[in-house]
Specification:
Blueprint lengths: L1 H23 L1 H38 L1
């Protein structure tokens, strides 16, 4: 029974923290930071693939 009460208390505190984050805007800020980071990674990955493929084309044309 004691373990169940501790679990319920932890769940309650987690829910309270989530609602506080939503209310004060920090949840949105974290979401925006995550979205920015993901977008940045995708852009860098895309540019890296473009550079790598153009280098392969340059190497292929210089060997001909």
């Amino acid at each position: 029974m004691k373990g169940e009460m501790e679990l319920i208390e932890q769940i309650l505190q987690t829910e309270i923290n989530i609602f506080r984050a939503i209310r004060d805007g920090s949840a949105l800020m974290q979401h925006m930071e995550d979205f920015y980071y993901i977008s940045l990674l995708e852009t860098v990955r895309s540019n890296y693939q473009t550079v790598a493929s153009s280098r392969k084309l340059e190497e292929g044309s210089s060997q001909s």
